[in-house]
Amino acid sequence: MDEDEDDDRREGEGEQGAEGEQKGCIDRAKDYIKSTEFLVYAEATLSTWGDRMWAFAVALFLIELSFGSLRLTAIYGFAKSISVLFLGAIIGDWIDHTARLRAVRIALVIQNGSVALCAVVLALMFVYRTPIENSPGGWLMTLCQVLLITIAVIAILAGQATSICLQKDWVAVIAGGDKERLANMNATIRRIDLCTKILSPVVVGQIMTFVSMLAGAMFIAGWNVVSMAVEYYLYHRVYVSVPALAVKEVKPEKEDEGDNNDDNTENPSNQSTDRKSPPPSCFHKMFKTFIILFNGWKVYFQQTCFRAGLGLSMLYMTVLGFDNITIGFVYTQGFSELAVSLLMAAGAILGVGGTFIYPPLRKKIGLHRTGLISGTLHWGLLSLCVASVWAPGSPFDPFYFFRNTNVTLPHVTLPPDVSLPATVTPSAHLSILPTSFNHTMFPTMPDNTTDTQQDQEEERPLWMYTSVALLMTGVTLGRIGLWMYDLTVTQLYQETVEETQRGVVFGVQNSLNFFMDMLHFLLVIILPAPETFGFLILLSFAFVVMAHMLYASYSRQVRGHLFHVNLLYCENCRKDFRHHKSFAKATSAEDPALQVPLRSRDGDVSTREFVTTV
To answer: Torsion over CA of 213, 219, 220 and 223, rounded to 10 degrees?
Structure first.
């Protein structure tokens, strides 16, 4: 009987232990849901989902309203880039001068409200499209288009403010100086952004395809209204849970002091000193916007890590990505829609993989070395794109502008008026071939009455896809290094930029990014033919290399070297090197002429530290 009772007791204890373990897992899950990180990630998911969904749908809406023309979409893109370019620093300065909770609330309401209003305007235009189009001279349609683009640009500017507040400022404060935690939070937010970039267009695209454009517009409007309420609540929860967010050196504007003092609960001790400051001059009031813009760019270039940020912006001046230009070029070279979509998915997956690699790599080798490795990996993989310019099947023609007639034909590697002498034997790597050989191996656009598109694709040999395959392989694999480098530069700014300048610095960074993006579109306008796309590839690769060289120069300035040269020596050479270095260091104490001052990160000469010239 005693043995049976002991067995029953052991079984009961085992069941209680299992229940305790299960309860522990549930409690941990509940604690994580209540944690600040989960609230930040939930807010980032809602925000980026709405942004990506609207960015995808607005282009389709504008094309639908412009009768299939890309002009309205191009005007919207140009207006968006110009606005961020000139107002990015002003937005960042406003964030620095405004209390955190107040700034993010205003930006959130303006962003989501503008998107919802845009969607409502689109819905009304779809419902009353016939009367609007039949207005005298089309003035009503033009007015609606101008109103639509204006509201959409306001939403973009507010979205920039929201992104700076949460992803650049709040995250750095929440991490509390813990660099590992900051790296994990940055990587997770970037991972969320990449995932929503893939999934959100699928959802809204299904609604717009299988229901209607009107239903898609109403869905986006409803999403932004609901999301605004939820995000408003989540921001408040995060703000309350992190007391450090309530501590900020706010610099309210002189003329708006009365309004700011009522809502500014962060660091109220500065209010009394601000009231005693003299009023701004008439010159300051007249040119206040230009002064803020000039000071913002000045502050940006005064940062020690501005070269790393300038390098990041140069990566936007490239066609070596999954933008509409590269996708259109690949499509003209014979890749199907399925192949292009699979490559885009693969690039997104590799980009997400880079966000998983970044935190442990930074922890293992440090932040600066992570940037060097990711940059080298990026441009190293993009060298495949350079090889694609001269690979078999490439349409690149360096003498395109010197031809008598510039004819753009698909699947042709040279203009039809170019031929080689009969004595020349063509090889697989040549891009200029005899006319007879070109006609058999590179068939021109067939006549619809005799051949079909399927017959044309069957006649095209597989080796002609070598060039475009190399191009897309480099672009796809390069996503890993690209996003690791992006995370590195973001964390560098978060760690080095002062809290009172964080908003304006990231605002100028966004302006530089949009400027480089505009520049690459202008180059495509100048070189629009597939035969000249090779020039764009080479120029983009040059910008990528220069970007990572700028980061390398910054890393060398901070660390004093790019890599340890002595690690390349054998063990005996290392011993001799250390012995020679220690001997020189000992003799330098007797001979001050051998000592040179050690410069600090800011370039100032230190009077206490010296290094020995070896």
So the answer is: 180
User: Which conformational region is residue 288 in: left (phi greater than 0), alpha (psi within -120 to 50 degrees), or beta?
Assistant: alpha
Residue type, 591: D
Closest by CA position to 413, among listed 533, 504, 297: 533
Q: d(Cα 380, Cα 362) in Å, to the nearest integer?
A: 20
User: What's phi and psi for 322, nearest 5 deg?
Assistant: -95, 55
Q: Which residues pair with 448 in a beta bridge?
A: none
* Own/partner long-range contacts of 455-459 (Cβ < 8 Å, ≥24 apart): 456/411, 457/334
Q: Taking the CA atoms of 98, 101, 102 and 104 in sequence, report the sign of the dihedral they define.
A: positive
* DSSP symbol at 35: S
pLDDT, tens digit (0-9, with 9 covering 90-100), for 478-512: 999 999 999 999 999 998 988 888 889 999 999 99
Nearest CA to 321 out of 433, 179, 477 is that of: 477
Whether the pLDDT of residue 459 is over 70: the answer is no
Q: What is the pLDDT at residue 566?
A: 58
Question: Among residues 490, 496, 499, which one has the least CA distance to residue 96?
Answer: 499
CA 536 to chain centre: 20
CA 221 to chain centre: 25
What is the C-alpha separation between 227 and 49, in angstroms, rounded?
A: 10
The torsion angle over the Cα atoms of residues 222, 227, 233 and 234, rounded to 10 degrees, is 170
Q: What is the DSSP letter of 400?
A: G
pLDDT, tens digit, 9 for 90 and up, residues 227-241: 999 999 999 999 999
d(CA 178, CA 199): 32
Helix, strand, coil: what percent of the chain each, to 5? 75, 0, 20
Q: For residues 493 and 509, is the Cβ–Cβ distance under 8 A?
A: yes
CA angle 459, 463, 468 (to 5 degrees): 105
Closest CA to 162 of 222, 115, 211: 115
Contacts by 211-214, CB closer than 8 A, 24 or more apart: 213/60, 213/61, 213/64, 213/122, 213/126, 214/123, 214/126, 214/127
pLDDT of the residue at 212: 85
Closest CA to 356 of 199, 480, 537: 480
At residue 446, the 3 state secondary structure works out as coil
pLDDT at 48 over 80: yes
Report residue 189 CA to chain centroid gap.
Answer: 12
pLDDT digits (tens, 9 = 90+) for 186-214: 999 999 998 988 888 888 888 888 888 88
CA–CA distance, 146 with 128 (Å, rounded to integer): 17
Kindly report the three-state secondary structure assignment for every residue of 540-580. Answer: HHHHHHHHHHHHHHHHHHHHCCCCCHHHHCCHHHHHHHHHH
**35 touches 28 (CB < 8 A):** no
- For position 247, what pLDDT does the model report? 81
Say if residue 319 is exposed, middle or buried (CB neighbours under 10 Å; 0-12, 13-18, 19+): buried
Query: Are the beta carbons of 164 and 509 closer than 8 angstroms?
Result: no
* pLDDT (tens digit per residue) in 509-542: 999 999 998 888 888 888 888 888 899 999 999 9
